[in-house]
Amino acid sequence: MSENGQFALVPKTPAALEKADPGTKRVLSGMVTDALALVKKQQRSKPRIVLVNDDPNALKLMELLISDWFEGVTLLTFQNGADAWQELRREAPDLLITDLMRREDDPLDGWVMIPLLAERRVKYPVVVVSGCSESVAKHCYGKPVSPTLRDLVQQARKTLDITTVLMPFLNDEFGKLLHTKLKM
Predict the structure, then answer these.
(1) Are residues 90 and 158 in the same domain?
(2) Predicted local distance difference test score (pLDDT) of residue 31
(3) Are 49 and 158 in contact (CB under 8 A)?
(4) φ and ψ at residue 91, rounded to 5 degrees
(5) 3-state secondary structure (DSSP) of residue 6
(6) What is the Cα Rg of the chain in Å?
(7) Number of other CB atoms surrounding residue 72 within 10 Å
(8) Distance between CA 70 and CA 72 in Å, rounded?
(9) How many structural domains is the chain composed of?
(10) 3-class DSSP state for residue 166?
């Protein structure tokens, strides 16, 4: 970082990359990806939040609350995991808010998305809003929860910044949590 706070990305020459062992190539390309994501985030003037929930009422409520709490926030809302996942892969948000359970026709619910995020080692905070506590859920909204999925989500907590908020939540406490996560 220079004295004026700007970032400069100085790439390695292709010849230097070709001479490096395969592990080095992966590390360097990962570093470049991380650096580009950091530069993009530094250039954003307002927070970018991705909100995923298949319940239109819950989605609208959280959308209204977030719009009231954060002036000028970029809020992207999705009712299914596949569309949200495409957006998360396209550009990392400052915060992801997701539910755990979704309709049966949505194979990429929170139980599946969270381990995928851990595999990608994302750096942004994840707030899980659910009527089910993933640590004890054997059934969630009348549907069985696989112990394997439950264990994968617990494992993901080791590499991700995940906070669970059980519904119904207190609006003020939810707002304070989101403010805290966005400041990190």
Answers:
(1) yes
(2) 57
(3) no
(4) -155, 130
(5) coil
(6) 18
(7) 8
(8) 6
(9) 2
(10) strand
DSSP readout, 66-135?
HHHHSTT-EEEEESSHHHHHHHHHHS--SEEEE-S---TT-S--HHHHHHHHHHHT--S-EEEEESS-TT
CA pair distance 79, 98, nearest whole angstrom: 10
53 lies in the same domain as 82: yes
Predicted confidence (pLDDT) per residue in 71-92, tens digit = 888 999 999 889 999 999 999 9
Give the domain extent around 134: 48-183
In this structure, the strands spanning 126-130 and 143-144 are unpaired
The helix (run of H) or strand (run of E) holding residue 26 is: helix 22-43
Question: What pLDDT shows up at residue 99?
Answer: 86
Token code pair at residue 3: 């004295």
Asked whether residue 67 falls in the same domain as residue 102, the answer is yes
Question: Which residue has tokens 């001479």?
Answer: 19
Cα separation, 156 vs 152, whole angstroms: 6
Q: Is the dihedral of CA 33, 34, 35, 38 positive or negative?
A: positive
Angle between helices 81-90 and 110-120 (to 10 degrees): 20
> Among all chains, which residue has been given the structure tokens 């991705």?
50
Phi, psi angle pair for 157, to nearest 5°: -60, -20
Q: Which position has the token pair 């020459």?
A: 13
The angle that helices 110-120 and 147-156 make with each other, rounded to 10 degrees, is 40
